[in-house]
Amino acid sequence: MVKSVFKEKHTPIRIVQNVPVILVLITMLMQILCGIILSKYAFSFADFSEPLLMYIADDIAIMGLFVFVGYYLSKIIKNIKGKGL
Fold first, then answer.
1. What is the C-alpha separation between 62 and 68, in angstroms, rounded?
2. How many CB atoms lie within 10 A of CB 18?
3. C-alpha angle 58/32/14, rounded to 5°?
4. Which residue from 69, 77, 72, 70 is spatially nearest to 85, judged by alpha carbons?
5. DSSP for residue 63
6. Cα–Cα 20 to 30 A to 54, which of 5, 13, 14, 35?
7. What pTM does this model have?
8. 45: which residues sit within 8 A by CB, 6+ positions away?
9. Residue-wise pLDDT tens for the chain (85 aa)?
10. Distance from C-alpha of 13 to C-alpha of 10, rounded to nearest angstrom
11. 40-43: Cβ within 8 A, 24+ apart
C-alpha cells in the first residue's frame, strides 16, 4: 500500500487531498507527545512505588469521585433548567 503512494502520479487534486491528511497526522503525533509530557505533571498524585492493590484502590477512588461529582452536577443543572433560572 505504501509503495503505491510513491508509484502513482501525483495530480494537483491528490496533493491537495494529501496535505490535510499529513497535517492531521503531524497534529496527532504532537498531541501524543504533549500528552506524555503533561501526564508526568497531571498525574503526579499517582505513587507508582506503592503496592499494586493500593494503586488500583486509589484509581477506583478517584474515578468514583469523578462519577459522584458529575452525577450531582448534572442533577443541579437539571434543577436550574427546570426552575427557569
1. 10
2. 12
3. 150
4. 77
5. H
6. 35
7. 0.42
8. 62
9. 556 666 777 788 888 888 999 999 999 999 988 887 777 666 666 676 788 888 888 888 989 999 999 999 999 998 888 876 5
10. 8
11. none
